[in-house]
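job 3f2a | input accepted
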Amino acid sequence: MLEAFLTPWFFAYLALGVLVGFLAGLLGIGGGMTMVPILAMIFPAQGFPFETKMQVILATSMATIILTSVSSVRAHHARGTVDWRAVALMSPGILAGSFLGTRLVASLSTVFLGVVFTTFLFYTATQMLANFKPKPSRTLPGPFGLFVVGAIVGVLSAMVGAGGGFFSVPFLTWSNVPIHGAVGTSAALGFPIAVFTTLGNIWNGWGVPNVPQPALGFVYLPALVGICGTSVLMAPVGARLAHRLPVATLKRIFAILLYLLAFKMLHTVLTA
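job 3f2a | predicted structure (272 res):
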């Protein structure tokens, strides 16, 4: 088991964590968008089985969000921008949706999951490039409506290995929640999404053949440890630079990078 942490690939995971943490702090985006396509290039180079590649990538990406979301939630809570009532009402739906999403991930093929994720990448890149902001037009729905929205966010997040911000923030702003409150509440929702989805990925991946070891279910531990070890340290660095650099320009550059990563990942998945 220790041998997996003493290979050159572990240093690649440390380097990926530096990139993911820095971009998360600088641009306020989740790490899944950069982590998943890069892991999709690293894992085949390590000779990992193609059959479970996307399941392991999505599960590992989501597991890293547990640790990084804690510091984010604390910061937003300190500024009073978290709607804890909405978080409480959406969390049961997130629980149900996350476990349903992980069941779908476990049963679908690597090719299908790869196409789903690249579609998400194209959507995200277009949203960032256009700086799309939905116009608020109504208020938050009642408890049942928030449960349903939470379930939808949970399913979609599990399917793409992301913390849910790109799904929950547009919904919250559309529901007339101020942008700072939408971002803070979305950050708080990222924690239950990550926890419930990771538990589902561990459960559904337990004992599945062709999963690289050491792992907990579908979660590949060396990648998890390496990425978390450096991303947590780099996120504050990116956040400090965000106040000094032209973030709007950086977002456009990052969107172009996402397009390139999406095309590369789609080519890798469809030609493997």
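job 3f2a | The longest helix spans residues 179-205.
job 3f2a | closed
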